[in-house]
Amino acid sequence: MSTMIDVDARGTQHCETTALGVLLRHQGIALSEPMLFGLGSGLSFIYWDGKNLGFPFLGGRVKPFDLTRNLAAGLGLELRVQETASPRRAWQNVTARIDAGHPVGLQLDSHHLEYFGSKAHFGGHVVAMYGYDDRDAYLVDTDQQGGAVTTSLTSLARARAARGPMTAKHRSFTLTVPPKPCSPQDRIVPAITACADAFLNPPIANLGHRGIEKAGKLVRTWLQRTDNPERDLPQAALLMEEAGTGGALFRNLYRDFLAECAGRIDSSHLRTGHGLYAEAATLWTEVAALITKAAAAGDARCLAQAGTVLGDLARMEREAMQALIRLGRRAPK
Predict the structure, then answer these.
(1) Mind giving me the DSSP string for 82-141?
(2) What is a single Pfam family found in this protein's UniProt entry (predicted)?
(3) What H or E segment, with its residue span, contains residue 174?
(4) Do 160 and 170 touch, CB atoms closer than 8 A?
């Protein structure tokens, strides 16, 4: 016996925005993926080289689930989050909502999902679940992972129970749209300025524009940082371009968000920010290509060039965010 909800099982590029799109479309709110990402103030940067990492990681978005929290708060949605240490209770939390006709978002470790292309551990992966039977769960993941997919209940249980970096305790969540939700149009400026403020004023040097500047200095040393450059450097570049980022370390998504906003709001600050992020997106893809080339050629000069481009990106993105934060300080022009 199976229980299935009729959903618009459209996969997009990034996991969290894919799941949010499924949950919101089911309640009649259809927003583009760039708009979901931008209204969730999703853009960020982190240079992460923790003790538990074999090689540095360049991240381009806020922490897992912060985007969901930001979007729900901005649009006035009821976000119901359930977490538990009990696998039995965790499964009951999900089936109760699906049985009641509500698709559910899940945060889990993608390593254990049978359909997933990469077997690396990532505890911040998010999917939408819309059905189950005695053997399988029915999920919506990114286009890259197949969109509407299935995985066994056993594998889903392992993915939800996983512990490690960025994991949560069997986290499941639903969104409820109130009778009079906030207009997405009205939330554009607050979402952009909140994102810009966080980017311009990071608490530590590994984040925001300061983090990009730091990356520009440290990427030059990456050939000495690894004993297997042929593995680690292309993997770092792959994560920037293809690991659900939409390309260019999420800058393509934010560029497209700003373009969509510029079609709704007449502002020179917004046009400036969009133009700079359009240029930045191209340069991030260039950085990824240089890192890959450095591994293939064993040539530190490619990493030096990548470092120079990252220095340019730190200045460029700082200027972009300085323009965008002005949206909240004066009337649009």
Answers:
(1) E--S-HHHHHHHHHHHHHTT--EEEEE-GGG-TT-S--S--TTEEEEEEEE-SSEEEEE-
(2) BtrH_N
(3) strand 172-176
(4) yes
CA angle 213, 126, 66 (to 5 degrees): 50
Residues 211-236 pLDDT 10s: 999 999 999 999 999 989 999 999 99
Neighbours of 296 (CB within 10 A): 12
Token couple for 74: 């901005």
Domains parsed from the chain with CATH numbers: 3-30+78-176 (3.90.70), 184-328 (no CATH)
pLDDT by residue (tens digit) across 133-146? 999 999 999 999 99
Q: With beta carbons less than 8 A apart as the criterion, state whether 273 and 265 touch.
A: no
Euclidean distance between CA atoms 333 and 331, whole angstroms: 6
| Residue type at position 280 | A
pTM for this structure? Answer: 0.95
